[in-house]
Amino acid sequence: MDKSRHSVLELLQQDAVPGGSGASGGSAAREFDVVGLGVSTVDLIMGVNQFPSDEFVQRAHYSLLQGGGPVATALVTLARLGCRTAMLDKLGDDWRGKFIFEEFEREGVATNHLLLAKGRTSSVASILVRKDDGARTIIYSPGDVEELSPSELSEQLIAACRILHLNGRHLETCLASARLAKRHGVLVSLDGGAHRFHEPLRELISLTDICIVARQFAYAFSGEDDLQASAAKLLQAGPGIVVITGGTEGSWAFHEAGGCFHQEAFKAGSTVDTTGAGDAYHGAFLYGVINNYSLRECTRLASAVAALNTQKIGGRSALPSLQDTMKFLDQQQV
Length: 334
Known about the structure:
By secondary structure, the chain is an alpha/beta fold. 33% of the residues lie in helices and 24% in strands. The chain has helices at 8-12, 70-81, 95-107, 155-159, 171-183, 201-206, 215-222, 227-237, 277-290, 295-308, 322-330, and strands at residues 32-37, 41-48, 62-68, 85-92, 109-110, 114-117, 123-130, 136-141, 161-166, 187-192, 210-214, 241-245, 251-255, 260-263. The longest helix has 14 residues, at 277-290. The two termini are 19 Å apart.
């Protein structure tokens, strides 16, 4: 039997799962579908002919100021698809913090658990997008806001969600929140971006149920240069579901019951900007989990949303509605 066609919730084989009879009394008692914990940024995105390798001056084709951050953009993706989301982060009270806060509110991401640090500055990133292929390079400044501390966590908020989504920023607080999630029957999802693996993340991975990582992250974690071997080591570390993403090569899904398959990367048209494509993949995958999709359906939906998100400038400009996503999928070969 192809177990990848079972729902992700079935594959995880948990007694206390979203939609089940966990510590928080099942899905009806959950205020949010997904709560995210991570760093929110302001992104300055500029389209260029080429990436500079030395002293260099060029005129940008376009520029855009937009909110960003891996977890933050995944939550905006979920909100566009129709989910109830909330963001946990600490922002400065500067113009950047205000910009981030207001964009979350416009997108329908709950902001009542965002903390403001007086006299501090928020994170900002400068993103250069190459015109020919949409590839990007990122330079960021984290601002001077102190990391969110475990003492600032709301156990009530963690207990009120179905999935907790993390990427390891505010690491000690991620660990504390993941332990709280386990206590309350909440699934834990981890976004492992390329070039973002470091040894302290091993403990967080052990607390994760759904682990979606870039191929470079998987290889760095495992010490292998093989997908199957890397996935096996990630599964052994704790997650029940592992997905390894490979950009235009698609993604590979693995589960603890022993199955694996490849999901193609859809193409929605000429790629304009790949910023946020991975974040959109994460958000859409979690939408599928919440709505009891099979593992294959989750990766297919995620691939579609990621492809559609490359069609405009910025990591959030082209995030689709559920209706537009389903229309796109109907046009693809099964």
